[in-house]
Amino acid sequence: MKSVSDGNTDWEPNEMMSKQIVTGYRVLAVSFYFVFPLFFAMPAIAMDGNAILMQVDKNLQPESYEMYRKLINIEPDGDKKEFVLYSVKKGQEKMVALFLSPASEKGRSTLRLGENMWLYIPSVGKPIRITSLQSVVGGVFNNSDILRLDYSTEYHVKSIQENENHYLLELKAKTAFIAYDRLKMLVDKERMVPTTIECYTASNMLIKTLYYKQSKDFGNGIIRPSVLETDSPLYKGYKSVMIYAKINRKELADEIFSLNYLPKVAELR
Amino acid sequence: MTRINGYVVFYLVLFYFSIFHLIFPPIVYADDDYSFDLEAFEKKPLEWGGYLELKWEHMNLNRDGAFYLLNSYEEPRETLNRLGTTLQFDGRFQKEKISANWVLQASAWQDEVDSDETTDVFEAFVSYKPTPPATLNIGKKTYKWGKGYAWNPVGVIERPKDPNNPEEALEGFTGAEIDMVKSFSGSLQTVALTTVFIPVTEKVNDDLGKDTGNNFAAKLYLLYKDTDIDLIWFEGNSRPTKYGIDFAKNLATNFEIHGELVYIPEQEKKVLSSDGSIETRKIVDTSYLLGLRYLTESDLTTIIEFYHNDAGYTEAEVDRFFQFFDDAYDVFNTTGSDALLKKAQNLNKGGYDRPQAWRNYLYLKTTQKDPFNLLYTTAGLTAIINIEDKSYSISPEITYTGFTNWECRLRFTYLDGSSLTEYGEKQNESKSELRVRFFF
Question: I need a surface site. Which of A8, A173, B127, B221 has the fewest CB within 10 A?
Fold first, then answer.
């Protein structure tokens, strides 16, 4: 199994196991006196993990905002293909992304409402349902990466470990409709943002790894990584990058996140 | 009459591709050069775009096919090469809550027999949005209703789309539209009502229907329990009253299902009667479509749709038409008189030459993204099968989008079926097509 690494701190699976906060052996070792409080301690641990995850979400993006992103697909020989997207998000499960560039994709927009996703192509003239594992841009990012909701909306924390600088959260999807069944998220303790996330299928196959890089002050108290890189064993040699250029808090009507509004998203800017 | 040598065209296109790399060399950046000049993407009041297309087609003609001979009985050919070009220009000018929108298309083609050029206003409408939930549109606009990919029985105010190119833009109709949407929390997440008024006069929207007058259409959309549901209604002077319903739902992260049903209490259908006259019958039309889209772990997307066209021709009606044509062609060959062939032509244009004019069809489209790790390449296969007569068309294709703003598609279509079947009698036996688009 591949280790989660942030460059300095390698997290080997055996080490993870040894640092497990609650183990079966400990449970057997404690007396009845300790068993009773343990029932309360376990939810408390889970709550801590979920609280960390919610803090991570809060630091990555405000609840209601607009942002500009550039997506770059990089081929093994260095060739690149770029896309620029304007996105708005509201609450925990509403998000829209509009393609501004290149010209061949301009005007396309995608909508996500919880587990539902649609793609609107101007020439097609109507939104069509898409699935989270598809990719509207090709490359390593799929639709759920591009229209990512808060991690805490889709996942709950299954276990948590920590060392001096990082938390390691193991996340489990809340439903079968989530693109990745499990995530291993390495969180920077100081900034409380993810540095590395490994994405696994239900059969424990590593689909891709996400790397959050280059912390940047976006203003209004938003300090977060400005670059998200990803690679995948399924796309050997290929890499995709998402660059965040502008993140602004913005009040948005709920009706903006509807199929009828998809052809008009450009007018929001 | 201008003749084009197909091989010359083919090699010109090949040459065009060969210099592609020289004109547009791949740009190689240094690692981690993640610059993002946001100023280049600042919003402007006037935004425009479009594409320029060049298309070459080589057709092996079906010299025994009824649909080919109907149009070319005087001078049947073996092959036909066609070169065409299309320019589409779309855009929007926005000032506060009002915007002007347009889609214009001009195209021209020439082959060894004929040539043509057209200029169309697909869309030209003014939009007023007092609030995000409400929109008023006035002008010419395209409506594409329904969840089907290849066909849309509930598309009550749209022109028929080509199942071989279902994603192409279509010309709209002139009218007025009010669109309202409301979001909720809970099982019912969205309700939207779209109402459209389309007048038909001798000069406006005259191709919506044969009779002039006022026409109304409405679509009530619900997102209920993660399912898209549309309730559709059409009432007017130019087309028969129609009631429709459709749905779409994701069953898994890689699996979607959809369906449509339209009920038309009084649908007119032109058929050839046993005495050779053209008869207009009134039928109750209940047409429907069921479909699915499935994505495998290896990025193979499959779309399958079954379409029942209740107003389509029965086997007996089709046989009668083909028999009538055979008799007319025999008369032409023996006497030189084409009077009966002209009548068959009129009948053909009245309904038999419609795409998918029979009753039951199966549509299959599979696309493999990045086959053999070739990024930005999509290999596809489209099949349209007439279930009743077992005839079919099958189209393998490959599309490459690796050059920014360029799209190249190479497609081959093979049609097959026995005598007196739909695809066995079509104009082409096979068609090769190379299409290059530059988006701007």
Answer: A8
